[in-house]
Amino acid sequence: MATNNNNNENNNGKMSVEEAGRKGGEATSNNHDKEFYQEIGQKGGEATSENHDKEFYQEIGEKGGEARSRQNSNDNNSNSNNNNSR
Q1: Tell me: the pLDDT tens digits for 21-80?
Q2: What ranges does the record list as Low complexity composition bias (predicted)?
Q3: Are the CB atoms for 55 and 62 separated by under 8 Å?
């Protein structure tokens, strides 16, 4: 992704949404510790579990397994190609 360092010039002195998000994330990171992120992650997990059923978790688990399988296949192909070039 190409970044544009002239966002303020191109947007009449206004910050882009991307830049605002990045700066906000950096400020949050500077102001909070590990425990803060653990707490909001816990709250998010609890809210998700209250709003979704067993089938939701089965579906995302299946998607994660498929993605991991593709990643492992790609890793294995890369490794065999690297071994063949030696």
Answers
A1: 999 999 999 999 999 999 999 999 999 999 999 999 999 999 999 999 999 999 888 776
A2: 1-12, 72-86
A3: no
d(CA 30, CA 33): 8
Cα dihedral: 61, 66, 70, 75 (round 10): 30
**Separation CA 51–CA 36 (nearest Å):** 23
d(C-alpha 3, C-alpha 7), whole Å = 9
Taking CA atoms, 41 is separated from 5, 29, 37, 70, 79, in Å, by 32, 14, 6, 27, 35
Instruction: Dig out the tokens for 83 from the structure.
Output: 């071994």
Question: Is residue 26 packed enough to be buried (19+ CB in 10 Å), middle (13-18) or exposed (0-12)?
Answer: exposed
Return the DSSP state at 12: T
